[in-house]
């Protein structure tokens, strides 16, 4: 433990000085830097005259390295971690260097890298470098290309990065359990020429999911499909940081999917282009425009757009994936008038609450008793009230007046005058009379306007 230190403060962005890396250079193994905060940490600047634009890992961080004999050396430690999923809930996960997901590994096309992996889990593990072309013996599939890394042992992987792109790493040993416990990370290979694929802001995160019973903290690892926490980098809204950009910035968001299902990621506002896939960068002429892009299991996508001022929702379009744990297993009550039965039950169970008879929006506002360490099914408050979202949801916050490296949450958007939807309070326009129900339609081709009924108060 003596060679492990927390370099970063608990909150806010901190740069890791080059001095900290070189001091570790004296040790036999590179220092295993640890980060336990779930706040987005700005990445360390590249220290070795191989400039690239580092990515910003959403609610995550990038792993520092040292250079020894021309080789970039990293040290990952597989170990149990405690992760705050969102304020009010922490989970007992497995990850790397204090966090789940583990730190983002960033290097440059052409680099020779050496990654030490120390196993501090209670069982064997290995690391597979997902998407990277390397010597087969470095591929990290336990049993197939290497023996598993025994508890307490360190393995070393070494290879040359041949292609730029967005990749991932995860275990290939007991992977159902180890990935259900949160073991994964991003692996970004930057192009050799920093002008290639250049953008102003470059974000990355991994789609992951957990099944953690309300009131508990450890994932149920045998779950195949019925997860109840849908997360980005092991965070659920409102615990997911915003994507902050300046008006006109070219923004890239890289997304990898290590859940058990696909996620159609939808962004409001500016249209985006899919510029990267698992296979690498899409040539300019072949990029395609979308507002929702489906990301299959094991896939990676990079999207890019020109930022337009506003607060733009970005979320998975499977609506269950923007719900937290309490949204599952609730019966549908729309249209059921159970006032009478509710009164009777309330006499027996004082906390009893009727749920969802007019839809479930009310549940975003109400305070209902839930077990400790459990997120309400949908939370998050915006400038106009409850957002009614959880899970895989965040906000792209674009402002005119941000500095180049400013990623601080700028607060809520101030809508210019005349650009905000508001209640209509003038006199209602006259509507044509409703056709009488008994009268047969005089002409099948005539448009019929149905007047709303049963809304006496509107
Ligand atoms: Cu989804």
TrEMBL record:
Residues 1-26 form the signal peptide. Keywords: Copper, Metal-binding, Oxidoreductase, Signal. It is found in: Periplasm. It comes from the Bacteria. Residues 424-458 are annotated as: Disordered. The keyword Acetylation does not apply. GO terms for cellular component: periplasmic space. Residues 86-193, 218-330 form the Plastocyanin-like domain. InterPro entries: Cu-oxidase-like_N, Cu-oxidase_C, Cu-oxidase_fam, Cu_oxidase_Cu_BS, Cupredoxin, TAT_signal. It holds the Pfam family Cu-oxidase_2. Residues 426-444 have a biased composition (Low complexity). One of its GO terms (molecular function) is oxidoreductase activity. This is Copper oxidase. It comes from Ideonella alba.
